[in-house]
């Protein structure tokens, strides 16, 4: 999978993907506005998704699973969830009648593993380390 294969909502910016730069494609990748909110919602709770303090009445997923740092797998999981939510919107206005692991041309499982491999095997190690540092700030 190459940079050109990733959906633009994975790039930084508000609205999602607005900072996508064809000349510097890895800049802002996996730092998207929508993706960041999905990540917060999943791991620290729904009330934190828009930057508010947690109002949870029980432990968040990060605490429940002793998650102290963000890794490539967490980013990939959030990317799949973000993609799923966008798919639901497309699904609602389509003629499809069921959800599948691979929908039309899009395979969620391949997407997940491609993101992990892209981050872990990236030739630009400074970029990959910077990405993880950005998520763990």
Could you name the key traits of this structure?
single chain, 137 residues, mainly alpha
Helix content: 40-55%
Strand order of the largest sheet: 1-2
The best one-word shape is globular
Structural class by SSE content: mainly alpha
Radius of gyration: 15 Å
**Mean of the pLDDT scores?**
77
The count of DSSP E runs of length 2 or more, i.e. the number of strands, is 2
The string of secondary-structure elements, in order, is HHHEEHH
Specify the biggest β-sheet: 2 strands, antiparallel
Low-confidence stretches: none
Amino- and carboxy-terminal Cα gap: 27 Å
Percent of sequence in beta strands:
under 5%
Total helical elements = 5
Could you explain the architecture of this structure?
Helices cover 45% and strands 3% of the residues. The chain has 5 helices and 2 strands; from the N terminus they run αααββαα. A hairpin with a 2-residue loop joins β1 (102-103) and β2 (106-107). α1 (33-44) crosses α3 and α3 (72-92) runs antiparallel to α4. The longest helix is centred in the middle third of the chain and has 21 residues, at 72-92. The mean pLDDT is 77.
């Amino acid at each position: 999978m190459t940079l050109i294969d990733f959906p633009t909502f994975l790039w930084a910016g508000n609205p999602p993907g607005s900072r996508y730069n064809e000349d510097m494609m890895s800049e802002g990748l996996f730092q998207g506005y929508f993706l960041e909110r999905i990540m917060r919602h999943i791991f620290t709770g729904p009330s934190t998704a828009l930057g508010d303090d947690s109002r949870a009445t029980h432990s968040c997923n990060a605490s429940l699973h002793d998650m102290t740092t963000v890794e490539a797998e967490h980013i990939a999981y959030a990317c799949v969830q973000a993609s799923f939510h966008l798919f639901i919107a497309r699904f609602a206005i389509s003629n499809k009648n069921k959800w599948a692991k691979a929908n039309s041309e899009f395979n969620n499982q391949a997407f997940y593993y491609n993101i992990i491999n892209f981050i872990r095997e990236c030739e630009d190690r400074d970029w990959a380390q910077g990405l993880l540092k950005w998520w763990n700030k």
